[in-house]
Amino acid sequence: LYQLRAAGDAFAYAFTQYGLHAIVIEGQVKDVYGNAYPIYGTYEVMVARVLDLDPAQLPTMPYVQGDAFAPGLHVYPPVPAEVTMQVMQVPFSDLGATNVVTVGGQANRFGYFQSPPGTILTMAAPGEFRVDIGATYEDPDGTLWAGYMTWGNVIEGTDAASRIVAHGRRG
Asked: Three-class SS of residue 13?
């Protein structure tokens, strides 16, 4: 994991408000030899107290074609947070065939969220999937709480001639 660090506190910043903030970076960075490298981008940062999310599914668990994904979770500390779960399936690793399902709602006062009855997310075809979960809660004194998780893995086909294409690189 590459990191960029300043030699001092020149870029130290203390956020004074909860919520979503955008940080825009544009410029260049020089290495010890004087070589300049461009750096730019916009980054979103959520400033809040941490909600710990414990999903009903084991994160990064691979699936077999036909398996069901149960969109549920526990929120810690237990609060009635607003929850959004997005499951993206990429059949046969073909981005043009991507299927996205979003489920959301409110956790109960014990921090438990389960999708509405009848919500069934079936891993219908071999390929890849990604899960994005977010939960936010504002307590009566205005303190914002938030937690986010993302993971993904493969959906294995039921036949030996599966057409999965692996992406990424070692290391």
From this structure: coil
pLDDT per residue rounded down to tens, the chain (171 residues)? 566 677 778 778 889 999 999 999 899 988 889 999 999 999 999 999 999 999 998 888 888 999 998 899 999 999 999 999 999 999 998 999 999 999 999 999 999 999 988 888 899 899 999 999 999 999 999 999 999 999 999 888 887 555 556 677 766
Query: What DSSP string describes 67-103?
Result: -EE--EEEEES----EEEEEEEEEETT-GGG-EEEEE
Q: Is the peptide bond before 77 cis (omega within 30 degrees of 0)?
A: yes
Among 59, 126, 129, 48, CA closest to 81: 48
Length of the chain: 171
Show the tokens assigned to 71: 């969109």
pTM across the whole model:
0.78
Distance CA(18)–CA(139), nearest Å, equals 12
Which among 169, 167, 159, 168 has a CA at the least distance from the CA of 66? 159
Give CA 143 to chain center in angstroms. 22
Q: Is 170 exposed, middle or buried (0-12, 13-18, 19+ CB in 10 A)?
A: exposed
